[in-house]
Design goal:
Length: about 90
């Protein structure tokens, strides 16, 4: 059961990483620039884009503001990647 929870969280982190990285690249923002905008270290940003980091909602909100994308759009894109049947609870 605990292993399944870790797998589900990993899928979520990977989907978030995919969305954030795509938008950053589309806007041609470097990791240095975007991480400085939200006061995050470059290594933490790299971990986020690699699907290692599991950020708090406040951090995701800052990211959405730095990328000029409504928070709900980021959430929708994550949901689209994960599919309608995805859930974080058992």
């Amino acid at each position: 059961m605990q292993e399944e929870t870790l797998d589900v969280k990993q899928k979520f982190k990977k989907a978030l990483a995919q969305v954030v990285k795509r938008h950053r690249k589309e806007q041609q923002k470097s990791i240095s620039k975007i991480s400085a905008e939200i006061m995050m270290t470059k290594s933490m940003w790299t971990d986020l884009e690699s699907g290692i980091k599991d950020p708090q909602l406040t951090t995701i909100w800052k990211i959405s503001e730095a990328l000029n994308i409504p928070l709900e759009n980021i959430i929708k894109e994550i949901k689209d990647i994960l599919g309608k049947d995805f859930t974080l609870i058992d």
